[in-house]
Amino acid sequence: MKVSKAAAVALLAVCIVAPASAQRAMDRAEVLEIIEKLTSAGRETWIPAGTIEAKHQQYRAARITDGSAISERIEQEIREYQSKTDKSERTAELQKMYLDAIPFNVRYELANESSMTSSVVLRYDGTRFYWEVAISSRSDSVTPSADLVGNCMVNFFSRTWNDRRVFAWDGQKYTIYSVSAGGAIVDTSDRLPRAVSGPLTAGVIPWGRGLLSYTNLVAAKVSATEIARDGTTQIELTVEPAGSSEMTFLLDPAKDLAAAAYTLPGGNNTVMSTYCSGYRRVGGLWVPTTVLIEQYDAFTNRLLRSDRWDYSAVDTGVPGAERFSVAFGANTSIEYYSAMSARALVYHHSNAVDMDLLLAERLAYVAEQGKRSWNCATASLQYAATQLGTVAPAARLTQVIGADGRTTMHDLKRGAQSLGLHCRVVQTNLATLEALSGCQAILHLPGQEHFVVLDRVDDRYAWIVDLANDRFYCRKDKGFMAMDWSEGVALLLSSEPIEGPFTDVPESALRRIAGGDGWSCTLLLQDEWIIFCTDTPDGWGCFGYFQWYFERWGCEPAPDGTCVTDLYARMAGSDCYWDPLAIRCRVTGVWDWYAMSACR
Length: 600
Known about the structure:
The protein has 13 helices and 36 strands. The chain is of the alpha+beta class. It has a 23-stranded mixed beta sheet. Helix 3 (67-83) packs antiparallel against helix 4 (92-111). It is elongated and about 105 Å long.
């Protein structure tokens, strides 16, 4: 795409508000010296490591202003969805919701005009990062109508889920955390593109890389003009790489050629203008206090998007490793994606439990599946014994599993006794167990024929450890728990004799109480799938929204037991943008959350 010089002229007019007293065309040797200096000191971030605090003001214009084109797109998407035989939404109810939401979703994608203000804290050590975004205001010109309230297929930016978010890479796991909604995704399997940008990279010119490498610059058509004005000197550098459009940079020789402004071809027939002001020395580097980036339509000059960054604090002290860890709030619902497990592991975070240890035990259970006999009874016994300081050898655990793969309460009790633990199988209730100390309780859920460990009971919830399940640590409302645990049968374990006014279950009944693995949350609502950024036809640009849809399950009729739903992330999305200097499409790394009701 060839762009006229109008944008560059406008840029220089903004930056040079008074007539220049002198202009001098620089010769080839001087130009090469500038290129050498720029490319030898190139960087991709304002600071190599440290902490940045900034305010971000963002504007996004409507992508399309032609109402008839939007209507045509709505009709097209409705036709395509109706004719699609393998829909990702698996139930008739969700498919109807999706169809009903298409008109709004298309208008929101194409016609919405939005502005948003947020504060940002970003820590970085050259590889790892911790990036927190807190929104203070948001406006959208397209909003859902009343008839779409409760439709989880509506793609509308929700402040409930997005007001405060954290994106962090600690070198091993990538976390996207909605603090405001109490939900998090932890990815250790490289499912998500891991990116950090924002105030760390906004306005940075990566001299020495891509189109601006020394080799490409020397081979390009390059000219430079020295401009003297009011006792200061600036250099206007114009670069036209082979096969690309003209780029113009206004550089300050007094600040190691820091850019006051520049224009670039933005891809997809757009022009990007960037203005940097208020430079100061930080850690020996020139860092601006304000960066303004604007993208215009190359032919109509319509403003398409803008980002203004005002830096309030910049520190080049390298953060310690602990500064990249995410501190989850109590009760945060976490989905943990690991290469060891085909599906996400789900748990509620608790400050009362060693969550790292519990997660490691669940992953160990997953790793052992298929290698040895293992079920919910052995997983529960091993965990309970460990909590009492007793090692449960694998050989002992496998002895409690019958030929049919199931374990009776009789065998589970004998297995615990073989470990040297004191045991009682009793009928009781949550209130009694809440007051019990020095014991572990393995509960039998009759409707699911399933064993779990009761971790603790608080004023509202029973907290359950279920290492045989992907949802391995969760809270259950006491009322629902009483329904699941309808017979109140528990195996109490302790390293000391167990006293108390319990009703012991007769030995003859223990063989009829059995467990294997079961779960009533079995209705597939939505497949896991990804929508990637869209490239422009000419290959010089991209647009759209990188979207990761999560596998979600719902409740369906079961002979016994209960199924409890909650709000989970339906989709996480990140804006796509074209990097004209790297000649590639990127995502911002700021993930927006969209919710739906599901049981897993």
